[in-house]
Design goal:
Elements (H helix, E strand, L loop, with lengths): L2 H4 L3 H18 L4 H14 L3 E7 L6 E10 L2 E7 L6 E6 H9 L1 H6 L7 H7 L2
Parallel strand pairs: 1-4
Antiparallel strand pairs: 1-2, 2-3
Helix pairs in contact: 2-4
């Protein structure tokens, strides 16, 4: 078992993921793809809430939920638990652990961050 997983709860893992995403978006804001994602976030996503479901092995059986919102081009935690928004993104606990074990790898290569759900939701 990963040391990160042994010493972290889902909240810490999810917040570490959000920090990594925000840092990657900031660092790569001048690249074409990330620039377009940020522009769409500002235009269509600002203030919107998105639901995330965390699962262990089966995406249809999540064990934890988070609601995030977009504000000023960044993701912010809105609530923990299943809130009103539909589930926009199902993510494995293992993926969150991987991001938290080596966040710089994901900052350096934001394509690894699995932002397809966001692109789809914003109409990219």
């Amino acid at each position: 078992m990963s040391a990160v997983l042994e010493n972290s709860n889902t909240y810490d893992l999810f917040m570490g993921y959000l920090d990594t995403v925000n840092e990657a978006l900031d660092e790569h804001s001048d690249t074409p793809v990330i620039g377009q994602v940020l522009a769409l976030m500002e235009k269509a996503g600002s203030g919107r809430k998105f639901g995330a479901a965390i699962y262990k092995s089966d995406p249809q059986s999540p064990f934890d939920y988070f609601t995030v919102r977009l504000a000023d081009g960044k993701f912010e935690l809105d609530a923990r638990g299943k809130d009103d928004p539909d589930i926009d993104w199902r993510v494995s606990q293992e993926f969150l652990v991987n991001v938290n074990e080596d966040p710089q790898k994901y900052v350096d290569n934001p394509a690894l961050l699995d932002l397809d759900w966001l692109k789809t939701r914003l109409g990219f």
